[in-house]
Specification:
- By secondary structure, this protein is of the alpha+beta class.
- It is built from 4 helices and 15 strands.
Amino acid sequence: MKKLIICILATLSVNYVDAQLNLNTENTELVIENSTIEKVYLKKGSDKIFLKNDSIIFQRDYYNFNTKETYTFEKQLKNQGFNVPLNQLQDLDNGQQVIDRPPIYIETYFSDETKGKQMIYSNVIIEGLFNNLYNQLNKEIDVYFNQLPSGKYTYSTFINRRVKDNKSDFYKEIENDLIEKGIEDEDIYNQPIIYINKVQSTFDELNKLRKNEIKSYKVIKNEDAIKIYGYSTKNGLVMIETK
């Protein structure tokens, strides 16, 4: 499994009305029962937060089902006096389980080298922290995601990037057919759906095929594809069957 990590330094200010922790600029340690909380790790689905008194690190993993690789967006944010109640991120009520919402895993690390673990379904403070980070980082996450290789990813998202170099003869034949039918959009989100032997595929996988491997293929333009296969094929459809 391969990790592609982008680290960016920035500044974040997070404020919660109900926050109980006020950080002192001279001494940012939290003491709980004679032991200091050094960091808290939060995991919700593919998203992770590493929370310390002086910084927050946010990570989001994208697994590509075609390449079998994981790509990680990472951003480190400098703490500028935000109030997050680390001392309340332990022994939390489990909350109410919500359908289609992943549980939250919490690991608390203390200065005496002990560690606490917990799984909860919901918490206002933690949900607020995740949502705040989503809102702050949304544009940067989109830029990062748009640079990833073609394939099907977590969050039910499919990237299909057209091949620019080293095109096979069969790829060029399909490309010409697409152009003749007016399917020329370069946007990775507006590409025709490609099926190779009834499995959704990418232009990269199409480019690996050779003409002598092909039994049949069909390129159907937008309107005609919708009539037969539904709105999901609004950007066109390429169906390929190999020998």
